[in-house]
Design goal:
- The protein is α/β, with parallel strands linked by helices.
- It folds into 3 domains: about 45-155 and about 195-360, 3-Layer(aba) Sandwich (Rossmann fold); about 155-195, no CATH class; about 385-545, 3-Layer(bba) Sandwich (Glucose Oxidase, domain 1), CATH 3.50.30.80.
- About 35% of the residues lie in helices and about 10% in strands.
- It contains 22 helices and 14 strands.
- The chain has a 5-stranded mixed beta sheet with strand order 11-10-9-13-14. A 4-stranded parallel beta sheet has the order 2-1-3-4, sandwiched between helices. Strands 7-8-12 form a 3-stranded antiparallel beta sheet.
- The structure holds (2R)-2,3-dihydroxy-3-methylbutanoic acid.
- The site of (2R)-2,3-dihydroxy-3-methylbutanoic acid (XAI) has 14 residues, from α9.
- Its EC number is 4.2.1.9.
- This is Dihydroxy-acid dehydratase.
- It is an enzyme of class 4 (lyase).
- Belongs to the IlvD/Edd family.
């Protein structure tokens, strides 16, 4: 039976090359050198790209060297032709000066590949933090049928009978080491045991968050996000994803037909329910911007009033393997749709609505997924903040500890309001160099502030705002101080920082004139953070030299700085957001 695609496949423009038999021959011949026959390429079957994000330097995604084998079989079984190609690698832990540089670079590269080659539809292999947003940003720009295949998290990590989650264990052990409770060898053992298998972070860090949100946006098959990388179901969903993308190619089911304002609002709400990463804020904004959708600070605030229902580190207790067995993202979506919190009518890659996809999903472990009316925490979303130091920053309220609440947020008659003395650091070298300097006299009336950590400053925006207190305070049992910065922090961190402050210091934002010793008033009820500095003094300081930032060290750093916007708008290459649907036109011949 021959199937007629809803829109002629773009690969026909290459391999049938109407009126240009010479070009068709040139396009066809080199694919044969690895065994594809001209008959296959001219048969009218869709060519399905597989954007391979795994490699030795992208270990969180390395599982995709395996998953794509099953994805290829799914593609072939459904009547498509697979063509695998590399995505620029992104490895959050290791990439210096920051992996944020790679998100926009991988985006650019993927756009050019999808646009410039005979690809009719694409599987986006995702895993580590930024592989998901960069791929989805590109899919929106090109707007050919696209589906996310997550690589999945690692198995749960165990150390001496206790769960140890990747990332989270690093920040917790770092504090223990500074307090003199563990040595370096024990630190490494904990880190190693938190990462027991292939896959990305097993906590609700940025990787799990972004893959969960891709599922929540309807861009992956239901259940895809949380299947641990080594599980048999991972190979099975790779096969199903391969089959499904062929159908999507025939149906011409493109990202623009799936992604809507409503689906992004759903994602913001899902983010609260799962206790997801603060990095989701710039990434969701970036994905929306490339899809032609504006997400405002008010839209972000709609997530604040909602409950946390997934009991996963860093906000909760468990890790992803247990969450998967508890029902994973489909079970959470089902609860949220049934409670009327999510709009279940949104489109998804299955061709069905979100509500239809999750109709049969169930919670299988009540210790991990809580009911909406008896959640782990009420009002657990990101608090959106503004003030004289920035236009927008966020605070992840689900990680505020009882000790932090008692110390800062519970002053009788003034709940949620506190004043603290700023100790300002210019980047993390400065922080590490001076944090234990007794001359700074840091105590628990201080807020640690880091600047020069944003898009322009670092460059790229670094995960540095979860600064820990000086060793002397840790040794006295003070686990955290308020922190503020124009950078990001790890999604695996349990620090209730005020972060992603934007515009950043290097763009002339308010943090640029802040001085050590200034008092800062934080009013969580009003959503404000203000330095208590008179207007004429602020004006005087603005005339002084700006805080130092390092020069660009590579050509891309320079170009990235020139073209990227601020974090509250997603930190995207701003000129790029006007390009949408580029794949609907086929570029002219090259010879
Ligand atoms: C653990 C990392 C590297 O910090 C990141 O992956 C995140 O979760 O934000």
């Amino acid at each position: 039976m021959t199937r007629t695609p809803a829109r002629p496949f773009r690969s026909r423009e290459w391999f049938a090359a109407p009126g240009r038999a010479d070009m068709a021959a040139l396009y066809l011949e080199r694919f044969m050198n690895y065994g594809i026959t001209p008959a296959e390429l001219t048969s009218g079957k869709p060519i399905i790209g597989i954007a391979q994000s795994g490699s030795d330097i992208a270990p969180c995604n390395r599982i995709h060297l395996e998953t794509v084998k099953r994805a290829r079989e799914g593609i072939l079984a459904a009547g498509g032709i697979p063509m695998e190609f590399p995505l620029h690698p992104i490895f959050e832990n290791c990439r210096r000066p920051t992996a944020a540089l790679d998100r926009n670079l991988a985006y650019l590269g993927l756009v050019e590949i999808l646009n410039g080659y005979p690809i009719d539809a694409v599987i986006l292999t995702t895993g580590c933090d930024k592989t998901t947003p960069s791929s989805l940003m590109a899919a929106s720009t090109v707007d050919i049928p696209a589906i996310v295949l997550s690589g999945g998290p690692m198995l749960d990590g165990w150390h001496e009978g206790e769960l140890v989650g990747s990332g989270t264990v690093i920040w917790r052990s770092r504090r223990k080491m500074a307090a003199g409770e563990i040595d370096e060898a024990e630190f490494l053992r904990r880190a190693m045991e938190s990462a027991p298998s292939s896959g990305h972070c097993n906590t609700m860090g940025t990787a799990s968050t972004m893959n969960s949100l891709a599922e929540g946006l309807g861009m992956s098959l239901p259940g895809c996000a949380m299947i641990p990388a080594p599980y048999r179901e991972r190979g099975q969903i790779a096969y199903e994803t391969g089959k499904r993308i062929v159908d999507m190619a025939y149906e011409d089911l493109r990202p623009s037909k799936i992604l809507s304002k409503q689906s992004f609002l759903n994602a913001i709400k899902l983010l609260t329910a799962i206790g997801g990463s603060t990095n989701a804020q710039p990434h969701l904004n970036a994905m929306a911007a490339h899809a032609g959708i504006t997400i405002t600070p008010e839209d972000w605030q709609t997530g604040y009033d909602l409950p946390l229902i997934v009991n996963m580190q860093p906000a909760g207790q468990y890790l992803s393997e247990r969450f998967h067995r508890a029902g994973g993202i489909p079970a959470v979506l089902k609860l949220l749709v049934d409670a009327g919190i999510l709009d279940g009518s949104v489109a998804t890659c299955t061709g069905r609505t979100m509500a239809e996809n999750v109709a049969d999903a169930r919670v299988l472990d009540a210790d991990v997924i809580f009911p909406i009316d008896k959640p782990l925490m009420e009002k657990a979303g990101f608090l959106v903040l503004t003030g004289n130091l920035f236009d927008m920053a966020i605070m992840k309220t689900s990680v505020i500890s009882d000790a932090f609440r008692a110390r800062y947020l519970s002053k009788p008659g003034q709940e949620g309001v506190f004043e603290v003395r700023a100790v300002v650091f210019d980047g993390s070298d400065d922080y590490h160099h001076r944090i234990n300097d007794p001359a700074l006299a840091i105590d628990d009336n201080c807020i640690l502030v880091i600047r020069g950590a944003g898009v322009l400053g670092w460059p790229g925006s670094a995960e540095v705002v979860n600064m820990q207190p000086p060793d002397a305070l840790l040794q006295k049992g003070i686990q955290s101080l308020p922190t503020l910065g124009d950078g990001r922090q790890s999604g695996t961190s349990d620090s209730p920082s005020i972060l992603n402050a934007s515009p950043e210091s290097a763009a002339g934002g308010g943090l640029s004139w802040l001085r050590t010793g200034d008092m800062i008033r934080i009013d969580l009820n009003q959503g404000r953070v203000d330095a208590l500095v008179e207007a004429d003094e602020i004006a005087r300081r603005k005339g002084e030299p700006a805080p130092p930032i390092p020069p660009s060290n590579t050509p891309w750093e320079e170009l990235y700085r020139e073209k990227s916007g601020q974090l509250h708008e997603g930190g995207v290459l701003e000129f790029a957001t006007k390009y949408r649907g580029t794949g609907l036109k086929v570029p002219r011949h090259n010879h």
